[in-house]
Design goal:
The structure is a single chain. This protein is an all-alpha fold and 247 residues long. It contains ten helices and no strands. α1 runs parallel beside α9 and α4 packs parallel to α6. The longest helix has 25 residues.
């Protein structure tokens, strides 16, 4: 019963983060599955992909209905990053996990500071195909090299590199998350990892509901406030990761 309650609460938090911030899926889901629900790291990684894909699609639909998705930028961003992510992932296997975690924490902190200091972009603006593809390839390389990233790097990149308004960056980043997670899940399709669906399903159910609530919350908050909140959360996670590795 305790595990079920934890699964429901954790799922709601993950869904709320994805719906409101366009990020937080794997960074929140994997630790929750391991430390709260007792999953092995391998099972947590696979289970997280299932949860993140379904929840992100739900949140994406909600943002799309509100017209808050830049489809061209998102698709170019996602497509350009798939091959670099695969190549960088192979190189990352040769480096110590602690070093990769510290590198990610440093990069996340840098992205957070840029978002906290940068004014929210005004107007819709146009998205350059070249810039979107280059930024997507760069993000894919970083994500593959460090093993994590997704929305927590996609949103800052969309805002600071392509000048996409925060309100649209949140929805657009969900495209990147879904694409990356589908590729990763396909790569794990032949693995023999067994998932505890009795815990995955309630986790997923509240995550989906939380995603809808997150989208409604984002609609009520100004882009500037949302950007500050995102930067603060990102900086907090970066500091926590750095401290955990140092200890």
């Amino acid at each position: 019963m305790t595990a079920l309650v934890l699964a429901l609460l954790a799922g709601a938090l993950v869904g709320l983060a994805l719906g409101a911030l366009g990020a937080g899926g794997s960074i929140l889901t994997v630790p929750a599955l391991i430390y709260l629900l007792g999953f092995s790291p391998a099972a947590a990684a696979t289970g997280s992909l299932v949860i993140v894909i379904v929840t992100s699609v739900t949140a994406l639909v909600a943002h799309a209905r509100a017209g808050a998705v830049r489809w061209r930028a998102g698709l170019l961003f996602a497509a350009a990053g798939l091959l670099p992510a695969a190549g960088a992932g192979a190189l990352a296997a040769r480096l110590p996990a602690a070093l990769l975690t510290l590198m990610f924490a440093a990069l996340a902190a840098l992205a957070a500071v840029r978002m906290l200091r940068r004014r929210t972009p005004r107007g819709a603006g146009s998205v350059s195909t070249g810039r979107a593809a280059a930024a997507g390839a760069g993000l894919g390389t970083v994500t593959g090299f460090l093993g994590v990233g997704g929305g927590f790097l996609a949103v800052p990149a969309l805002v600071t590199v392509l000048a996409v308004p925060m309100s649209a960056a949140v929805g657009t980043s969900l495209l990147v998350i879904v694409a990356n997670a589908l590729v990763a899940l396909a790569a794990r399709a032949q693995s023999a990892v067994q998932l505890d669906w009795a815990l995955i399903m309630p986790f997923l159910a509240t995550a989906v509901l939380g995603a809808w609530d997150g989208r409604r919350l984002a609609a009520k908050v100004s882009p500037a406030a949302l950007q500050r909140a995102f930067g603060t959360v990102l900086l907090t996670i970066a500091l926590a990761m750095g401290v955990a590795v140092v200890r």
